[in-house]
């Protein structure tokens, strides 16, 4: 059986040997055998685990990689695959929302929500249901100055227009990005000015990230 030294795998995958020891201590890499001089003896199986850790991290984040690989090391293969399937479903859902957002940005005359007729004024609950965003998140974005819903003169309740629905979808698209708050405000408020170029740019970048974040494209 072929054995690898820690430095061999570290060089092959461009990771540090200290990171490799951490993976082992976290239970996401099978414990290697030891040589007579107490050096770790990694095999092709360990190499595969290290590669999977990187691939899953690139696709779904390190926390997901830890969950999946722990299940694998414990022999719970089905449970590990279900975690991956769930993350893929989430990723695909986000990709679909991003594609829809990009479509409505390219054609502002389109309804922000496909097959759903929007009323002139909607409650926060209706806005949350239409955009698949929690009401608490919408309130937070209002506090941050990203959106400015109208208020009912009768009861003071928030009133969301189709433009606000469009803005909520754009914010949802930008959440995984590294844009600062002021930059996000500029992009979101561009909808009010009917200037969509900046919003289109960030949405296209997010869609590109989703298209390349599938774990099966990075596994070797």
Characterise this structure.
With 220 residues, the chain is mainly alpha-helical. 59% of the residues lie in helices and 4% in strands. Strands 1-2 form a two-stranded antiparallel ribbon. It has a two-stranded antiparallel ribbon with strand order 3-4. A hairpin with a 5-residue loop joins strand 1 and strand 2 (40-41). Helix 3 packs antiparallel against helix 4, helix 4 packs antiparallel against helix 5 and helix 5 packs antiparallel against helix 10. The longest helix is centred in the middle third of the chain and has 30 residues, at 77-106. It starts with 5 loop residues before the first helix and ends in a 9-residue tail after the last helix. 25% of the residues are buried.
- Fraction of helical residues: 55-70%
Quickly give the CATH architecture of the largest domain.
Answer: Orthogonal Bundle
Order of helices and strands: HHEEHHHHHEEHHH
Largest sheet: 2 strands, antiparallel
- What number of domains? 2
Quickly count the helices: 10
Intertermini distance: 20 Å
Write the layout of secondary structure elements.
Blueprint: H1 6-13, H2 17-25, E1 33-34, E2 40-41, H3 44-60, H4 62-73, H5 77-106, H6 124-131, H7 135-143, E3 150-151, E4 158-159, H8 162-174, H9 181-189, H10 197-211
Concise description?
It contains ten helices and four strands.
Keyword list:
4 strands, two-stranded antiparallel sheet, 220 residues, disordered C terminus, mainly alpha, Multidrug-efflux Transporter Regulator, Chain: A, Domain 2
């Amino acid at each position: 059986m072929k054995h690898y030294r820690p430095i061999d795998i570290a060089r092959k995958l461009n990771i540090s040997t200290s990171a490799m020891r951490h993976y082992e201590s976290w239970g996401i890499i099978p414990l290697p055998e030891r040589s007579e001089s107490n050096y770790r003896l990694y095999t092709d199986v360990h190499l595969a685990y290290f590669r999977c850790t990187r691939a899953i991290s690139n696709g779904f984040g390190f926390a997901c990689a830890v969950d999946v690989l722990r299940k694998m090391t414990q022999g719970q293969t089905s449970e590990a695959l279900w975690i991956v399937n769930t993350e893929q479903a989430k990723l695909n859902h986000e990709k679909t929302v991003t594609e829809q957002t990009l479509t409505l940005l390219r054609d502002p005359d389109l309804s922000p929500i496909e097959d759903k007729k929007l009323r002139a004024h909607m409650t926060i609950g209706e806005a949350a249901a239409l955009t698949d965003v929690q009401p608490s998140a919408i309130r937070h974005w209002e506090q941050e100055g990203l959106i400015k819903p109208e208020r009912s003169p009768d009861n003071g309740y928030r009133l969301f227009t189709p433009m606000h629905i469009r803005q909520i979808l754009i914010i949802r698209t930008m959440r995984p990005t590294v844009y600062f708050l002021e930059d996000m405000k500029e992009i979101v408020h561009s909808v009010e000015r009917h200037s969509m170029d900046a919003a289109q740019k960030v949405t296209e970048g997010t869609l590109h990230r989703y298209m390349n974040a599938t774990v099966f494209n990075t596994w070797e």
